[in-house]
């Protein structure tokens, strides 16, 4: 992989910090940032070397990014190692993951609401909490549709 320009290094670091602020490992964010700016397939080795991290860290965090739908593993015939690239539309994949988790949470929240007395303080708070997640869910669906249309 070519030497990174200063703006690329800054972007990779900003992406790492942003994803860390969202509760993900900083290295996962750094790998995601690297995938965003790379026009080539990236091997484990090139990711580790470029970011100056261990291959084990690359392995752990690329699996995480794959599970989020924002990294794609690619095998090349005759090659022993895997390569990674950014999927065609990783941004809708991120929101789809959030939307799926939100749907599951809303089902669990409904079970709790059905057991709570409707005149209780907890029920009122749970109802507001549910409204928040229902709004997030419906807006996520709209965002997914829009992202698929424009990207």
UniProtKB/TrEMBL annotation:
GO terms for molecular function: DNA binding. InterPro entries: HTH-GbsR_regulator, WH-like_DNA-bd_sf, WH_DNA-bd_sf. The keyword Phosphoprotein does not apply. Keywords: DNA-binding, Transcription, Transcription regulation. The keyword DNA-binding applies. This is DNA-binding transcriptional regulator GbsR (MarR family). It comes from Arenicella xantha. The lineage of its organism: Bacteria, Pseudomonadati, Pseudomonadota, Gammaproteobacteria, Arenicellales.
